[in-house]
Amino acid sequence: MAKAQRPKDTNALAKSIVDIATGEQEDKTTSDAIKAAAAALGRKGGLKGGPARAAAISSKKRSEIAKKAANARWNKEDD
What are 38-59's pLDDT values in tens digits? Predict the structure, then answer.
């Protein structure tokens, strides 16, 4: 399958980007198969990363990280 080309003209490219962002036009530069493969690869890494990190750090360090995250979550100021 041939890859769709984006316009070379700056104004036409800008309009194309706006149309894609607003849903008036579908982005045809990336196929669904490529998107699915990238998502699967990212998930595979994510499934490995968490347990590997947990095994690599001590429970004390994990506790410090959790406390810092909780403080950041609960002590943020409203705008």
Answer: 888 888 888 888 888 889 999 9
The whole-angstrom separation of Cα 34 and Cα 56 is: 33
Residue 29: what are its φ and ψ, rounded to 5°? Answer: -85, -20
DSSP structure class, residue 3: P
The span from the CA of 73 to the CA of 67, in Å, is 10
Closest C-alpha to 16, from 28, 6, 4: 6
**List of residues 6+ apart from 28 with CB closer than 8 A:** 4
Q: What are the domain boundaries of the chain?
A: 10-74
pLDDT in tens, 2-14: 556 777 899 988 9
- The pTM (predicted TM-score) of the whole model is 0.38
